[in-house]
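hey so u asked for the seq, here:
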Amino acid sequence: MRVTLKMHKDLQVIINEDAIDKRVKEIATQLEKELAEKDPLFIVVMNGAFMFAADLLRNFTAPSTMAFIQIKSYNGTSRYVLDANEKQLPELHNKHVVVIEDIVDSGTTLKWLVHQIESRGPASLRSVALINKKVPHEAEADIYGFDVDDIFIVGYGLDVDGRYRNLKGIFEIRSNS
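ran it, structure tokens below
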């Protein structure tokens, strides 16, 4: 299916809404089996992971808490120096922590965050990312939703300059030629 939206971009569906819904439920079930008795603390990497986290946590029915950290590593479609503040992290000592990420491409964000969390003495640490970009990473998530090639994608929380987060699927974004 090909969808053309305003803003002079051409979008090609990569992962549709039904596939996302199914996989998110599978991940929630897996995490619940592993963590149901541990009252986990989910740390959501904002802004991109907010839709994935909302759906994932609605399907995780065991007791849990959540916190948010804002980390930025892109300006438009270009990577730049990581913009993050470890002071946004809550108390983590002896907690069972699960990081929720939107995408692992270079792994820089995940590597930085895992280091920050590990230095605070959690009881355990797991990480889950909706998207694994098939490129070399500095860090790997424990659980991935989907693998994608080295393309620029948007939708379901992923954006370019704040746009396209509201799309229900994941789309490859290309400039019109």
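Residues 1-5, 75-83 have pLDDT under 50 and may be disordered. The chain has one domain: 2-74+93-175.
lmk if thats what u needed
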